[in-house]
Every structure is written in C-alpha cells, then in structure tokens.
UniProtKB/TrEMBL annotation:
Belongs to the DarP family. It is found in: Cytoplasm. Its main location: cytoplasm. Keywords: Coiled coil, Cytoplasm, Ribosome biogenesis, RNA-binding, rRNA-binding. The keyword RNA-binding applies. The keyword Cytoplasm applies. It holds the Pfam family DarP. Residues 88-115 form a coiled coil. It comes from Thiomicrorhabdus heinhorstiae. The gene is darP. Member of a network of 50S ribosomal subunit biogenesis factors which assembles along the 30S-50S interface, preventing incorrect 23S rRNA structures from forming. Promotes peptidyl transferase center (PTC) maturation. This is Dual-action ribosomal maturation protein DarP.
Length: 181
C-alpha cells in the first residue's frame, strides 16, 4: 500500500534540515540560501592549500575542497561544488565555524594592510622630508639605523631624479617592514 504524500506522516518523518528552518517566502529564497552556502564552499576553495589546512576544518570537508582545487573544468567540477554545498548544508556548526574563521582571516588581512600603509607613509615622508622625517622616526624607533636610513633616502631621491628603478626605496621599505612594531 502506497501512502499519499504528506498524509498521516508524523512530525519526525517530515523533519526539515536546520538550514531550511528559516522562514522563506518562496522556493527562490530557498534556492538562494542553498546557493549562498555553496558559494561559501567556493570561497574557501579560492584560498591557498596552506590557508585551507590552517583552518583546521573536518578532514572530509578539507579533502573535498582540496579536490575541488585540483579540478579545471567540466561536469565533475560542478558536481564537486554541489557536493561541498551539500556537506555544508548538512552541518550547521561547520557553516558557523567557517564564517568565524573567514572573519578572523579578513581581520588579519585588514590589520596587515593597515600596517603596510603605515610603512608606506613613513617611507614616503622620509623621501619627501628627508632628515626631519628620519629624526621623527628615530624618536619612535631608536633602535633603527639612522645612517642606513639616510643613505637609502639619498639614493632613492637620486634614482627618482634620474628616472631609474626605485631600488633604494624598495630597500628602505623592506628595512621598515623588518623593524619591530
């Protein structure tokens, strides 16, 4: 005997996955939510292999993402993306964990970018102002080598005047980056 759909079924038989328990107005919203989860997996696959491994995600998920990275194109690539999305939809905790780790990575990137902008600002100030900027920098970082800084600044200004590649400016930036902040 075959039962008609949704007739006389208990609540446990009609259980809805966690990711679908949100209130959706239409099938389109359900599809968009599923696509967002799949896109999260795609975002992880865009990371380098070492970054993926540093996230310490479950082995099965990590292996699936690394396999996706090795694929170039074709229907297998689409199936692997959908498989990763399915894995994520089945584990709500994994989605939360991934979002937290991606947020941490983004914060670190922003901090690193801010640090590099600060270094670039100091380099540019030294190239424009010369000894005044170097003296101000030396007050903040007394362990820096004043003579070496002056030499790089002089050479960078000469290179700019003669339209040569900015070798000394790059060396100055490398030195600033190597200093303890």
């Amino acid at each position: 005997m075959v039962r008609p759909r949704n007739v006389n079924r208990t609540k446990s038989e009609m259980e809805i996955p966690d990711w679908e328990q949100e209130e959706f107005q239409s099938r389109t919203q359900i599809k968009k939510a599923a696509q967002a989860v799949t896109d999260l997996g795609e975002q992880i696959s865009q990371m380098t292999e070492s970054e993926i491994k540093k996230m310490n995600l479950p082995k099965a998920f990590t292996d699936a993402v690394l396999m996706l990275k090795t694929m170039d194109r074709g229907p297998a690539l689409k199936r692997q993306r959908l498989f990763i999305g399915k894995m994520l939809r089945q584990d709500e905790d994994l989605i939360v964990e991934i979002k937290e780790k991606l947020a941490e990575i983004e914060i670190r990137r922003k901090q690193q970018n801010a640090h590099f902008h600060k270094l670039e600002m100091w380099r540019d100030r030294m190239l424009e102002s010369g000894d005044d900027a170097i003296s101000e920098f030396m007050q903040l970082f007394p362990h820096a080598d004043r003579q070496q800084l002056r030499q790089w600044v002089r050479n960078a200004v000469k290179e700019a005047e003669t339209q040569k590649p900015p070798k000394s400016a790059r060396e100055l930036f490398k030195y600033l980056r190597a200093l303890e902040w």
